[in-house]
Design goal:
There is one protein chain. It contains nine helices and 13 strands. By secondary structure, it is an alpha/beta fold. The chain has two domains: about 1-125 and about 320-334, NAD(P)-binding Rossmann-like Domain (Rossmann fold, 3-Layer(aba) Sandwich), CATH 3.40.50.720; about 130-155 and about 195-315, 2-Layer Sandwich (Dihydrodipicolinate Reductase, domain 2), CATH 3.30.360.10. The radius of gyration is 20 Å and the shape is globular. It starts with a strand and ends with a helix. The mean pLDDT is about 100. Bound molecules: NADP nicotinamide-adenine-dinucleotide phosphate (NAP). The site of NADP nicotinamide-adenine-dinucleotide phosphate has 30 residues, from helix 1, helix 5 and helix 9.
Length: about 325
């Protein structure tokens, strides 16, 4: 497989390169690209040194796949060039996710949709992926009625600059005892704070991120009428998104059966014993592949509903790993 990575210097790109040697992919050629700021920069991958190339026609020539993880604008260009050069684009941006002819894929849920691509495959948003996997496990036994989800999203979900901003603001407080007023990424200080807004507001007063969780989950699960209400919150955590999820069914669920559903689901791990303080935390989830579930309990206000807590590394299963798993499916089917 001849593979190109656009955004190789970014938060996702770096994790992609970290995970690649442990994948089943047979990479015969690897090309790396990023913004004009990084052209010529050297990156070590395994025992070789790679030079960041310009995202021009030459980059695409002869490749089988390009993974683009930069921005929607970059993905639009990557889509045009990939088409021109007969390269399949695996896209991490939100640009094409809801297009009818673009499969939006989580290999544990809908790998068959890869058969119907038109040259572009999209990866879901990093908050959507864990939610969709949890719901997919649950719906194998119980019909879903309504979902309420609150997210606690790490700053790495916004990329390298946001990680820097959190670290700088936290350092500033530790050194001066004062809250930092210097901010470049978020509309409020994120160090020692949290921000109940992820992305731009929409007409209905939800944010773009919250609506992505609804529309993307519906598409992946092929459940166009699924009811989901999300509140997305940015928290001062470097890696791993957490989600508090309330799921209502049409019947009274059995908790031990639900635990078994999660235990049997590939890619989900249950850590759930509050008597020993056992539940997943973002620090625990960092760098791990699975979606972790804990705090499983019946909703005392509704006998047909449950509450649970989910942690998933936004840079791993939320982005890079999901892309690698898609490539592995392609490699398998030829
Ligand atoms: N972070 C996550 O958890 C996550 C999860 C799912 C999806 N995504 C999506 O993944 C994409 C990248 O996110 P990230 O968090 O890795 O961001 P990031 O840390 O800010 O990295 C952005 C990458 O894009 C490159 N880039 C910027 N402008 C470019 C251009 N004009 N042409 C080519 N490359 C360019 C940057 O190169 P330089 O280093 O040269 O600036 C860098 O490699 C975004 O679309 C994001 O929505 C992110």
């Amino acid at each position: 497989m001849k593979l190109g990575i656009i955004g190789a210097t970014g938060a996702v790109g770096k994790v992609f390169l970290d995970l690649l040697p442990n994948s089943n992919l047979n990479i015969t050629e690897l090309r790396l690209s990023a913004s004009s700021r990084s052209i010529g920069k050297k990156i070590n991958y395994q025992s070789d040194e790679y030079t960041i190339q310009e995202n021009s026609d030459n980059f695409y020539l002869g490749l089988d796949f390009v993974f683009s993880s930069a921005s929607s604008e970059v993905s639009k260009i990557a889509a045009e060039k990939s088409k021109e050069h007969n390269v399949i684009l695996i896209d991490d941006s939100s640009e094409f996710r809801l297009n009818d002819d673009v499969p939006l894929v989580i290999p544990e849920i809908n790998p068959d949709s890869l058969n119907e691509h038109n040259g572009i495959i999209a990866i879901p948003n990093c908050t959507t992926t864990p939610l969709a996997m949890i719901l997919d496990a649950l719906r194998s036994e119980y019909e879903l009625k309504r979902i309420i989800v609150d997210t606690y999203q790490a700053v790495s979900g916004t990329g390298n600059l946001a990680i820097e901003e959190l670290i700088n603001q936290t350092k500033h407080y530790l050194e001066t005892g004062k809250i930092s007023e210097e901010m470049n990424v978020y509309p409020h200080t994120i160090g020692l704070n949290l921000i109940p807004q992820v992305e731009a507001p929409q007409e209905n007063l939800y944010t773009k991120e919250e609506m992505k969780m609804l529309y993307e989950t519906r598409k992946i699960l092929s459940e166009p009428n699924l009811k989901i209400s999300a509140t997305c919150v940015r928290v001062p955590v470097i890696r791993c998104h957490s989600e508090s999820i309330n799921v209502e069914f049409f019947s009274n669920p059995d908790l031990s059966l639900i635990t078994n559903l999660f235990n049997d689901y590939k890619g989900i791990t249950v850590i759930d014993d509050i008597s020993t303080n056992s539940y997943p935390t973002p620090i625990f989830g960092e760098g791990k592949n699975d979606v972790f579930v804990g705090r499983l309990r019946k909703d005392i206000s509704n006998e047909n509903a449950i509450n649970l807590w989910v942690v998933s590394d936004n840079l791993v299963k939320g982005a890079a790993l999901n892309a690698i798993q898609i490539l592995e499916v392609f490699q398998k089917i030829g």
